[in-house]
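quick one, 482 residues, struct below
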Amino acid sequence: MKELLATLFLMSIVNAGIAGLIWNAYRHLQGVRLIAVGFIVGAVAVMVGGAFYRPAPGFLNGMTGYLPNILVYTSLALCVNGVMIFLGKTPRRWLLPFSILFPMIYWPLALATDPGDGAFRSLAGAVVLSVGFGSVVPVVWRRQGDCAWLRWTLLPGIVIHLSLQGTWSLYRVWLRLTGEMDPTMFFPWTIVESGVAHHLWFVCFLAMLGARLQSKVEQRNRDLAHEIDRRRHLEQQLAATLAAERQTHAEYRQLLDIVVHEVRTPLTGIDRAAEMLQLQPTVLPDAGLRRLTEIRAGVRRVAGLVDRITASERTGHVQFQPQPLDLMAVVQTVVGGLGHLGAERRVQVAGPGHPVWLETDPSMIIAILRNLVENALKYSPPPTPVVLSALAHDGMVTVTVTDQGIGIPDLERPSIGRRFYRASNTGRHSGNGLGLFIARRFLAEMAGTMRHDPGPGNLGTCVTLTLPVRPLETDMPEARYA
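---
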């Protein structure tokens, strides 16, 4: 019997060590911490009892088992609440205070009543066991899922343990009441039975942990399989979308080539007609000849712009060809080219009164300013003016175009400049949503920015362009200056 008790003692210590390792490794699992602490406290109770308990009649001898008794029931309460948390149930918060306070009261009270009789201490201990284990029995019985097997393993062990301990305690009390005094204070077989129940509880704890980990692995495998199926489906959708995009892009390039051809043909005709008229100087006055020169220059500029836009759509990059120019002269060219919209009458140019020099691509800056001024004239009532101002400062040139037209809705302002995008309030005005898109493409090559704000008094639109006086070396390779 001594060897068996020593083995159970050592196994309790080993269980405590394993519980500590499990606590450290699986602290993320709910309830594991309380269960591990419960087994560690139980091992401490075994060590304290083995070292100090003196199972003999007498008050002082009986009090040597006071602390081990409290630790045993504390361990029980911690393990029970830990299991309930592990199984996803609300713990019995009253159980730990009860398991500590009740032994603290009944043990010295029973010793003071009769220090030579352990029957009532045994009965009180059985009451604590019944309350502690009884609180977890319904949870184990109704358990479904990964730990449903506890109903047929742990639950019978609990019932057997409570039955043996409770029956033995009642038998001792019955003997005491019938007048038969038993001075024995230590029954090895009850310790052995409690030790076996303790180790059964620990084995079930390990099995519970394994079942929970296996359940999590299976759930993760299911989630992973679902994620793989979802990503495979998304990959198929992406492949189909890319194929459709390639087809659309090919059709777009074909359409672009057709549009370029259809645009170039009338431009060539206009240029040839203007050239033939220039060859007959007596037919037109000097003003008409100057206008023919402007028309031919505009045709060449538009044709070159079409070629560059076509090349940019194929290569994704617009060739930037900077050269020194006077911005105010460019503004006058733009205003003069929009005479059919009444630009010379409606556009008010505000400048510093002297040339504003910058180094940039003339075709691009003319196309940008022409687009902005044309939009301002088109979306403003005919009598209202359009103000175009230019200012150079700190190595930057700022150009603003302000009108008193329909404006841009606040929520749509960030979308202005996207391909084919038009504001919701432009329905009765013709357009295709490409002008500002091309302007933004050109500005990106020129290291410039464009911002749309409400006009003065929250009326109309104020477009602000910001351009560097000289192009950045990182953006302008030397080959472009050749």
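Residues 305 and 363 are 7 Å apart (CA to CA).
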